[in-house]
Amino acid sequence: TERVLTGITTTGTPHLGNYVGAIRPAIAASRAPGVESFFFLADYHALIKCDDPARIERSRLEIAATWLAAGLDTERVTFYRQSDIPEIPELTWLLTCVTSKGQMNRAHAYKAATDANDAAGEEQDAGVTMGLYCYPILMAADILLFNAHRVPVGRDQVQHIEMARDIGQRFNHLFGQGRELFVLPQAEIEESVATLPGLDGRKMSKSYDNTIPLFEGGARGLKDAVARIVTDSRLPGEPKDPEQSHLVTIHDAFADAEQRAAFRADLIAGLGWGDAKQRTVALIEAHVGPMRERYAELTAHPERIEAVLQEGARKARAVATPFLAELRQAVGLRPMV
Ligand code: TYM
């Protein structure tokens, strides 16, 4: 069997980028025969960016409900909260001890923070916590603990998965005695949506405040958000360049080949941006509308979600506990008393 694993940080409400970059491909992968899947809510990662407990709680519920509304089958998928698996922080420590500081210096999230400080003339590490600095090691533990082969993610996570490979490889080399203790994971990227643009054309991201929420705000909210997607100033009747429009990229993330071709042809023939946006809304709504109803039902019953996650934690730990015991032994620690 092949293992597929992915997680989402619980710091905000899910947006279209999370859905097309990670949730949709992960659920599709989980349906293939011979695949064992592990999807989780990265609430330890959330603590790095957020010190508001109520927000983390709310986001965890919303993201859990989103996975279930999007069709995650709890019979086939092990679905859990990262913070219910104490083996993850324990493995993080074992990995921390074999990870070079230089490698962490090169991690994108850390570099972005220090570059911003440099540009602002601040002390380089101002505002950088050890959580942010070691973020990729925690993520490596998430992946390596379950020996995931494939990790469906958006492009912004590729470097983290390469780091997980490196760390896993170093650990295998030091402690495997010729055996592969860890499977080395591969990022799985869906090229066409690897970086879904947001309203302003930059990567759709909570930190840029340019997201289109998947469910929040309802059908009306979706329509209003799409209306705010930035386009050029060409008028109806004037030919548009589909390759220069991120509205087209967002449209295409929900369209089949025929709809994509028709949209392009119509834009070139002068379709107005207003009409183009209406078509985009209709397309997304056809996809998201039925899920939104399931989502509303689920968020109204947090106790059902809680039961699902507790069962998921039990299944995940049935894998994690014996494997961590093996890893403790490999590095020379005693079995847990
Ligand atoms: P996070 O929570 O920022 O994003 C969750 C997933 O959504 C993808 N994504 C996008 N894909 C395409 N276009 C976009 N605009 C876009 N925005 C977000 C992300 O690439 C990601 O796949 N560190 C991770 C969470 C994590 C994880 C893991 C992932 C923790 N442990 C282990 C995989 C395996 C993160 O913060 O993702």
**What is the CATH topology of the largest domain?**
Rossmann fold
Structural class: mainly alpha
CATH class of the largest domain: Alpha Beta
> What is the CATH homologous superfamily assignment of the largest domain?
HUPs
Largest sheet: 3 strands, parallel
Question: How many domains, in number, for the residues?
Answer: 2
* Uncertain runs: none
Shape: globular
Q: In whole angstroms, how far apart are the ends?
A: 32 Å
Spatially, the strands of the biggest sheet line up as 1-2-3
Q: Architecture of the largest domain, CATH level 2?
A: 3-Layer(aba) Sandwich
Query: What's the mean pLDDT score?
Result: 97
Order of helices and strands: EHEHHEHHHHEHEHHHHH
Question: What is the topological layout?
Answer:
Elements: E1 2-9, H1 16-30, E2 35-42, H2 43-49, H3 53-69, E3 77-81, H4 87-96, H5 101-105, H6 108-119, H7 130-144, E4 150-152, H8 158-175, E5 186-188, H9 218-227, H10 246-252, H11 257-268, H12 273-299, H13 302-331
Parallel strand pairs: 1-2, 2-3, 4-5
The structure holds tryptophanyl-5'AMP.
The site of tryptophanyl-5'AMP has 25 residues, from strand 1, helix 1 and helix 7.
Commentary on this structure:
By secondary structure, the chain is mainly α. It folds into two domains: 2-196 and 301-331, HUPs (Rossmann fold, 3-Layer(aba) Sandwich); 215-296, Orthogonal Bundle (Tyrosyl-Transfer RNA Synthetase). It has helices at 16-30, 43-49, 53-69, 87-96, 101-105, 108-119, 130-144, 158-175, 218-227, 246-252, 257-268, 273-299, 302-331; strands at 2-9, 35-42, 77-81, 150-152, 186-188. The protein has a three-stranded parallel β-sheet. A two-stranded parallel sheet has the order 4-5. Helix 8 links the parallel strand 4 and strand 5. Helix 4 runs parallel beside helix 13 (302-331). The model has no long low-confidence stretch (mean pLDDT 97). It comes from Caldimonas brevitalea. Keywords: Aminoacyl-tRNA synthetase, ATP-binding, Cytoplasm, Ligase, Nucleotide-binding, Protein biosynthesis. A motif ('KMSKS' region) lies at residues 203-207.
